[in-house]
Amino acid sequence: MLGMPCRHYAGPFHDNEGREPVPFPWEKLTGKPLIYASMGTLVNGLNNVYGAILEAVGEFPEMQVVLSVGKNFNPGDLGPVPSNTIVVRIAPQIELLKRAALCITHAGLNTALEALAQGVPMVAIPIGYDQPGVAARIAYHGVGEFVEVGNLTARHLSELIAKVTANRNYRDKARWFQKVIAKTRGLDIAADIVERVFGERIEAKQGVTAIS
Length: 212
What we know:
Blueprint: E1 34-38, H1 47-57, E2 64-68, E3 85-88, H2 93-97, E4 100-105, H3 109-117, E5 122-124, H4 131-140, E6 144-146, H5 154-166, H6 168-184, H7 186-211
Parallel strand pairs: 1-2, 1-4, 2-3, 4-5, 5-6
Helix pairs in contact: 1-5
């Protein structure tokens, strides 16, 4: 496009100012290390996945858990919920990630980047779409671990939770990416690229008009 490459990497875009406030029972948070768990908004109705998560996190009474199940799932279908767990349909994700010690995620790209932007390591359970690739990168870069949904058991998940929360290397690497993301300023880079493209188009159009 007028001498510029057709694709540009601008980095992740994060702007929490435009999000609508989400009600949340903040008074229920105890101050214990927080695990935030969400399986996203598209493929989030797998009861067996939620069951494995609840059984696994119940083994960590020294931690508190917030599980967001989405608007399409009835929390009443979950069965027993551990005493250390708060279940909500939707959650103020970024605000909770700012407090979290761990994020259990479907490895959706938005959630993964938002977790890294807050320096939070992850345990991923990819379901579909691009999620297996994102999960593989989470493990490759040392910011978490993952388990394929077909191999998911509560015991395996609890082992991964213990592994990631006990090893400081995961948190340190996630915080390293947090600094990289903060320096990248993806929104500013994207705006600059758009301005340059339009600027070149205007100059080219003016040049054609002058020749005519």
